Amino acid sequence: MRAVLGIVIFLTAGIVALLGQASTGSLDIYYIDTEGGQSTLFVSPAGESLLVDTGNAGDRDLGRIVDTLKSAGVKQIDHMWTTHYHGDHVGSLFNLAKQVPIMRFYDHGKPHPGDRVVAPKFLAAYEELTHGKRTIVKPGDKVKMAGLDITTVAAANQFIRTNLPGGGKQNTACTNEKKDESAYADPDNGESAGFVLSYGRFRTIDLGDLTWNGELDLMCPTNRIGTVDLYLTSHHGLAKSGAPPLVHALQPRVAVMNNGTRKGGEPDSFRVLFGSPGLEDIWQLHWAYNVGLENSPATFVANIEDNATIAGVLAPPQPAAPRGGGFGGAAHSPAYLIKVSARQNGSFSVTNTRNGFSKTYEPRR
After folding, report:
1. Are the CB atoms for 206 and 236 separated by under 8 Å?
2. Are 244 and 173 spatial neighbours (Cβ–Cβ below 8 Å)?
3. Which pLDDT does position 177 carry in this prediction?
4. In a domain, 1, yes or no
5. What span, in angstroms and rounded, lies between the C-alpha atoms of 58 and 56?
6. Positions in the chain whose pLDDT score sits under 50
7. What is the pLDDT of residue 220?
8. CA 218 to chain centre
9. What are phi and psi of 361, to 5 degrees?
10. Cα–Cα distance, 149 to 44 (Å, whole number)
11. Is residue 9 part of a domain?
12. How do strand 194-199 and strand 202-206 relate by DSSP bridges?
């Protein structure tokens, strides 16, 4: 009897130890370089995966996504989140599905009826691919991943109206500064499905390409979300997104900008970020031609141009010659990503894979 009891105690202690190890593991986030598109991989401490968007069409972005999945040890995509249906966010989806099993799909539903980019042929193929495995999300809906809380805050131009933990205060950054978005030729951006993800005390937000007015509708007059530690810039750092009432109310400690060389990274976007209370650093996937010397220090930029190209951008003798990077063009090679490892206590580390530079941010007090 004592021997049996001893075995039970031993096994119980082993299970507790394993659970303890799991609870102290990290949430790993990979911001993949899709040169001005989006593809972000989340891998939970238990190994469950969430992929947000699939970048541009063609072998370039597909290869980078597949390589990232392999390096992260991901053999299947447990959750595939599509923010919206533009080609820089869904371009590699169908070819990726041929190479890697995808278990569940999430999206905002029908595209905006006025959008000229989303083709009926794509929608028919998407419905076939996702049949029986698709969830059309609404604000407040959750993605079930063990150890994480993932809450939809925006979808189909609808926004969460209940308070998340830390939310519910009046947003003092709110203004009546709405923009005329009637001229936008791609209004499915404003339909973007976005979420807040929490792992213990660590919080991050991804709103896809949600535009300025939608950000105001989400955040004003009440900040339902509270603060976040890490903010993925809306819309690649384009000035038609990233409104101060969003960014300044979220008070991120770190911003990651998924820009290309000429797409995103606009001067007004940097001004809003630099003015955000408590912001410590901006990490960029690319050195942005749009701001020249106002880019983040090179240690925080994953993909940098050669010295001659940078010199030509800063002091061009003539208009710079077009090259790949930002609109699905030729590969900017080699390509590097930004990796984040977050812990339950709210601390997280950000690593630039180009140079190995890493910085750790301690929990907020």
Report:
1. no
2. yes
3. 79
4. no
5. 7
6. 1-23, 321-329
7. 96
8. 17
9. -110, 120
10. 11
11. no
12. antiparallel
Q: What is the CATH number of the domain that holds 34?
A: 3.60.15.10
- Gap between the Cα atoms of 137 and 93, Å rounded: 19
The two structure tokens encoding residue 160: 């969460």
Residue 277 lies in a domain: yes
What tens digit of pLDDT does each residue of 141-162 get? 999 999 999 999 999 999 999 9
Burial level of 58, CB count in 10 A (0-12/13-18/19+)? middle
Tell me the three state secondary structure of residue 146: coil
Of 25, 42, 287, the C-alpha closest to 143 is 42
Q: Is 254 helix (H, G, I), strand (E, B) or coil?
A: strand
283 within some domain: yes
pLDDT at position 317: 60
String of DSSP letters for 29-74: EEE---SSS--EEEE-TTS-EEEE---SSSHHHHHHHHHHHHHTT-
Question: Which letter does DSSP use for residue 296 in this model?
Answer: P
pLDDT tens-place string over residues 248-277: 999 999 999 999 999 999 999 999 999 999
Count of structural domains, the chain = 1
* Residue whose structure tokens are 């599905």: 97
| Distance from C-alpha of 161 to C-alpha of 338, rounded to nearest angstrom | 32
Domain residues for the domain of 300 are: 26-361
Candidates 182, 209, 180; CA nearest to 193 is 209
DSSP state of 187: G
